[in-house]
Design brief:
Number of helices of chain C: 12
Chains: A alpha/beta, B alpha+beta, C alpha/beta
Largest interface: A-C, 41 and 44 residues
Largest sheet of chain C: 6 strands, parallel
Strand order of the largest sheet of chain C: 2-1-3-4-8-7
Low-confidence stretches of chain C: 1-8
Number of strands of chain C: 8
CATH superfamily of the domain at 254-454 in chain B: Chloramphenicol acetyltransferase-like domain
Radius of gyration of chain B: 25 Å
CATH superfamily of chain C: Thiamin diphosphate (ThDP)-binding fold, Pyr/PP domains
Strand order of the largest sheet of chain B: 9-18-17-16-12-15
Radius of gyration of chain C: 19 Å
Helix content of chain C: 40-55%
Strand content of chain B: 15-25%
Low-confidence stretches of chain B: 96-156, 200-226
Order of helices and strands of chain C: HHEHHEHEHEEEHHEHEHHH
Largest sheet of chain B: 6 strands, mixed
Number of strands of chain B: 18
CATH architecture of chain C: 3-Layer(aba) Sandwich
Mean pLDDT of chain B: 76
Strand content of chain C: 5-15%
Number of helices of chain B: 9
Oligomer: heterotrimer
Chain lengths: 329, 456, 334
């Protein structure tokens, strides 16, 4: 096991898959000569050359379409969105083409493409560069949506995404690029898409969280342990397909649920999770599912407002206490 | 030795808070389990509260005259040398918004650790105007009596319980209605059911903020001093507030229909006079005949002895008959249990006892709930005929008028004087239809017209 | 100046085999779409049905110069392109009918014809969005070092879209073997060219992207063939893309819901354009040049009619897709 950053783990995943499969190529803005706006593709141009590490003009719809077209005839493109906010420019390509070509062609064509890049709240980047983007994609049948939280997951899930025969929207966490963690060295190490992981075992309440919120939840769990509340934390990792059985299993164990998400709450991930918990584990609930979500506002620039927009550890703790009917909430 | 937390007991299904009328035991008294600790005023009656643990009554947290939410800590029983500070340290469960009653001559609230029971609340100052909605803060008034308006419930009878609590209760055979919920708004949650299933002490309500109870407006005593006012707004008594809250929950959501009949009471009247003339036999009222007739008929008409449950209709195989008793401040309906299995004499004795204790507000909690059917008789007021509002979850109520002497014509057209009584059955249409109600009513009529059936 | 609209440039002698092929191809498309319109009127085809009657020369001419392993990609007005690329008329009609034996198992319909075995990459119904896909296919061809090409059909309505410009820019920048063929039928639905484009000579936009570009008479199947052949040759040689503007006209409405002569154009204009009917013109030339005889044409006509009748019968006889297919083909199983 090597210790490396989330960024390095992604780089390693790309490198290994580029070596493994000649059909894989990386395409996007500044992925080559510039070594990647966030340095995820650092060094790849040097090793693989301009044929496979393709710098594009600023034309998200255009180069995403190029990736989809190439995938239709058998290549396996990894399209980088410099930040996932720009993927909205290519939303038609992702939703109307990538996601639906298999279905519209009765299964004749499939689109083995990965669309990856950083997303989620960032630091003082304001409304257009700092937001949770997964909600725009996980609604769409035909897409898979991944949000990795740790270096090992970043590597293992990206490798699975590249090997997947379907379009995968892979949204990294901008604020986690620098975190370090152990990552298996085995070049065949992968993490299957659609598998959640229990990050922390607990008895009293299940907190569901991913990326930045996962770390807030882990901090909250430590603090709550001192209050005698034992928190279990489930990280879904893949949002579509969602590992519903693992989540339901945890709910049946703890009987109380808090979903923490950075995005605005209305019709967010927490809405969906609480809906299927209600449908599948209603009789196991001892309290209503609580959502801790980002404020229903665009991301502000000012530091204090930005802090207020995104859920804090304290908000997660308060929600946990409420569902546990504990004091101090 | 264990510390026993004395909490405001839930004495009726709808009870949300209660008032300590007086403490029978005072701080420092030795207490045995089963001793009466205090008298509690609920929505419906004054009830004696028993101790569930033994030791010394160490602390009284809610003095006489004050209210506490159901489940709220009101006192602590422990050994004389036990440290109870951690238990007492928590926020007392006085109903929010009800100011503590100051002792006479004291500016502030009495110390809750005061040895003496706090004195009665100071009388309100005479006011210029009697019409107002809230007293000024400096006016010491009687604590609010209206129950805290907790989360409005469309179904007044529904027990609020978490899905998990319901599942566990069903598995353990625990009746959720008998459990005091410790969750928000009195929600029964898992630990409440588990505590009930294992017989453990009920946990205290934890930090659930209750909406403030409205304070009582100026006392009507001021009215006499100001006869010139055009009108006055009289505060609702607990009971009136309760009735006001509950009745629309019946009348609006329960689709009522009514079936009326007239009963020839001549033979029943005669029989009653004969029975009442027998030495040593209890005095039997017309209403006792009606109750007995209903009890017998209910077993034959289970459709009428039934409750609407949303997805199902619960058909009762026992007849617990609620008897409406008019009080000055409202109405109360004590329950005569298993009326179908009781003789007319027994019914007479029990009904009288229930009515007397209802008027004295000495009913026990379990005597105020669980009816499957009710009888309301306004005959003593000379009412000839009326219709009543169903008391959910019951499916029907019988409204009984006075027995009147009126001219009646027999089949040959000959006029004579007969005793007649009108009865109107109010039915929940979700449970039964017109014909079901009519058949039941016909049987009650037949039983009353052939009253020997009621004594055999 | 690029090549003109004058068919004098085309070799005066027409090979009988080619004449037979082009004429039967165009007649097949025409007959197929006439029958589709009939089926639509009978309620056997639902949704949108966009006919290319009048535009057959572009599909037949352009695709006639492709190899079977070349690709074609198109819009939602793509029955002709799909048939010309070699798809079985029976399966195309079954798809229009929403039946199990349709090319896309009845899940795509008229606007989403796909035929992988014939290199037909789809009917795409978001205007302009398939141009980047064509560039992507060109990218894959180049990536693999193949000498294939892709022909990308689109209407004049796609030209104002950003993706037209993004795709042309990328294809030229990276030298991708894509032949962009604009079927300029002068109306984007109901919006005339002049009301939508600052530069109405569409082929000229290719110059902005330093791409070979030519206009061509889209009613002259041989002229189309000639222009596309040159573009294909360039693309095969070194990946050079082209922008071709085929000036054509649709005789029917935008879709079946749109009468042929609606408010946006006059009946007289439609009647005038009908005089340029590509099938009538080419048949006359083939007869004139002696490539075909009247009886050849009559045989072709009968054969085409039989093929289309078979297609209709096949579609009618194909069952509806089973309900469990609702949830298949959303993802490819690994």
């Amino acid at each position: 096991m090597a210790v490396m950053t989330y960024r390095e783990a992604l780089n390693q995943a790309l490198r290994e898959e580029l070596r493994r499969d000649e059909r894989v190529f990386v395409i996007g803005e500044e992925v080559g000569l510039y070594d990647g706006a966030y340095k995820v593709t650092q060094g790849l141009l040097k090793e693989f050359g301009a044929k496979r590490i393709v710098d594009t003009p600023i034309a998200e719809s255009g180069f995403t379409g190029v990736g989809i077209g190439a995938a239709m005839v058998g290549l396996r493109p990894v399209v980088e969105m410099m930040t996932f906010n720009f993927a909205l420019v290519a939303l038609d390509q992702i939703v109307n083409a990538a996601a639906k070509l298999s279905y519209m062609s009765g299964g004749q064509f499939n689109v083995p493409i990965v669309i990856r890049g950083p997303g989620g709240p960032a630091h003082q980047l304001a409304a257009q560069h700092s937001q949770s983007m997964e909600v725009y994609f996980y609604h769409v049948p035909g897409l898979k949506v991944v949000r990795p939280s740790t270096p090992a997951d970043a590597k293992g899930l990206l490798k699975s995404a590249i090997r997947d025969d379907n379009p995968v929207v892979f949204i990294e966490s901008e604020t986690l690029y620098g975190i370090k963690g152990e990552v298996p060295d085995d070049p065949d190490f992968t993490i299957p898409l659609g598998q959640a992981v229990v990050r922390r075992e607990g008895r009293d309440v299940t907190v569901i969280a991913y990326t930045g919120m996962l770390y807030r939840a882990l901090e909250a769990a430590e603090a709550l342990e001192k209050e005698g509340i034992s928190v279990e934390i489930v990280d879904p990792r893949t949002l579509r397909p969602m590992d519903v059985p693992t989540i339901i299993g945890s709910v049946r164990k703890t009987h109380r649920v808090v979903v923490a998400e950075a995005g605005a709450g209305f019709a967010g991930m927490g809405s969906e999770i609480s809906a299927f918990i209600t449908e599948q584990a209603f009789d196991d609930l001892d309290a209503p599912v609580e959502r801790v979500t980002g404020a229903n506002a665009p991301m502000p620039y000012a530091k204090n407002l930005e802090r207020a927009k995104t859920p804090s550890k304290e908000k997660i703790m308060a929600a946990v206490r409420r569902v546990c009917y504990a004091n101090g909430s | 030795m264990a510390v026993t937390r004395v909490v405001m007991p839930k004495l009726s299904e709808a009870m949300e808070s209660g008032k300590v009328i007086k403490w029978i035991k005072k701080e420092g008294d030795r207490v045995q389990g089963g001793d009466v600790l205090a008298e509690i005023e609920t929505d419906k009656a004054d009830v004696e509260m028993e101790a569930f643990g033994s030791g010394v009554l160490r602390k009284i947290l809610v003095p006489a005259g004050e209210r506490a939410e159901v489940g709220g800590l009101i006192a602590v029983i422990a050994d004389a040398n036990e440290d109870v500070s951690s238990v007492v340290g928590g926020a007392p469960a006085r109903a929010a918004g009800a100011p503590p009653a100051p002792s006479p001559g004291e500016a502030g609230a009495p110390s809750r650790a005061d040895e003496r029971a706090p004195a009665a609340p100071k009388m309100p100052q005479r006011e210029e105007f009697v019409t107002r909605t809230a007293p000024p803060p400096e006016a010491a008034v009687a604590p609010a009596e209206a129950p805290a308006p907790a989360v409005p419930s469309v179904d007044g009878e529904r027990v609020k319980a978490s899905p998990l609590a319901r599942k566990i209760a069903a598995q353990a055979g625990v009746d959720l209605r008998l459990i005091q919920g410790s969750g928000p708004g009195g929600r029964v949650i898992r630990r409440d059911v588990e505590a009930a299933a294992t017989g453990a002490a009920r946990p205290a309500l934890e930090a659930v903020p209750a909406p403030p109870a409205p304070a009582r407006p100026a006392a009507p005593a001021a009215v006499a001093a100001a006869p010139a006012v055009e009108y006055e707004d009289v505060a609702l008594s607990s009971m009136r507030a309760m009735i006001a809250r509950r009745m629309p929950l019946s009348k609006a959501p329960v689709p009522h229909f009514y079936v009326t009949t007239e009963v020839a009471m001549d033979r029943a009247w005669e029989l009653r006079e004969q029975l009442n003339a027998m030495e040593g036999s209890p005095k039997i009222s017309v209403n006792d005949f009606v109750i007995r007739a209903c009890a017998i008929a209910l077993l034959q008409h289970p459709n009428v002895n039934a409750s609407f449950q949303g997805e199902t209709v619960r058909v009762w195989h026992r007849a617990h008959i609620g008897i409406a008793v008019a009080l000055d401040e409202g109405l109360i309906t004590p329950v005569l249990r298993d009326a179908h299995a009781k003789s007319l004499g027994r019914i007479a004795v029990e009904a009288r006892d229930l009515a007397e204790r209802a008027r004295a507000r000495k009913l026990r909690a379990q005597e105020m709930s669980g009816a499957t059917f009710s009888v309301s008789n306004l005959g003593m007021f000379g009412v000839t005929e009326f219709s009543a509002i169903i008391n959910p979850p019951e499916g029907a109520i019988l409204a009984v008028g006075a027995v009147r002497r009126i001219p009646v014509a027999d089949e040959a057209g000959q006029l004579s004087v007969g005793r007649r009584m009108a009865m109107t059955l109010s039915c929940d249409h979700r449970v039964m239809d017109g014909a079901m109600g009519a058949r039941f009513l016909a049987d009650v009529k037949r039983l009353l017209e052939e009253p020997l059936r009621l004594v055999v | 100046m690029a090549k003109t609209l004058n068919h004098q440039d085309v070799a005066p002698v027409i090979e009988p085999a080619l004449a037979r092929k082009l004429l039967s191809q165009m007649m097949l498309i025409r007959r197929f779409e006439e029958k589709a319109a009939e089926a639509y009127a009978l309620g056997k085809i639902g949704g949108f049905l966009h006919l290319s009657i009048g535009e057959e020369a572009v599909a037949a001419g352009a695709i006639s110069v492709l190899r079977p392993d070349d690709y074609a990609i198109s819009t939602y007005r793509e029955h002709g392109h799909c048939l010309a690329k070699g798809s079985d008329p029976k399966r195309v009609m079954a798809e229009l009918y929403g039946r199990r034996d349709g090319l896309s198992k009845g899940k795509g319909g008229s606007m989403h014809l796909f035929d992988k075995t014939h290199g037909f990459l789809g009917g795409h119904a978001i205007v302009g969005a398939h141009l980047p896909l064509a560039a992507g296919v060109g990218f894959a061809i180049k990536y693999r070092g193949e000498d294939r090409v892709i022909v990308c059909f689109f209407g004049d309505g796609a030209v104002p879209q950003g993706e037209f410009h993004e795709a042309l820019n990328i294809a030229s920048l990276w030298k991708l073997p894509v032949i962009f063929i604009c079927e300029n039928n002068r109306y984007a639905m109901g919006t005339a060219l002049e009301r939508a484009l600052a530069e109405t000579e569409i082929y000229k936009l290719g110059r902005s992207y330093r791409m070979p570009c030519e206009p061509v008479d889209g009613m002259d199947v041989l002229a189309v063939r000639d222009v596309v052949a040159r573009a294909v040759e360039r693309a095969r040689a070194d990946g050079t893309p082209s922008l071709l503007e085929a000036r054509t006209y649709r005789f029917r409405g935008h879709s079946m819901r749109d009468p042929a002569a609606a408010v946006y154009r006059t009946k007289e204009e439609v009647e005038r354009e009908r005089l340029r009917d590509p099938i009538v013109l080419f048949r006359a030339r083939a007869l004139e040049s002696g490539a075909l005889t009247e009886s050849d044409v009559a045989d072709l006509e009968k054969s085409v009619n039989d093929t289309v009748d078979e297609a209709v019968a096949f579609a009618d006889g194909s069952p509806e897709p089973p309900e469990e297919w609702l949830l298949t083909d959303i993802y490819k199983k690994d």
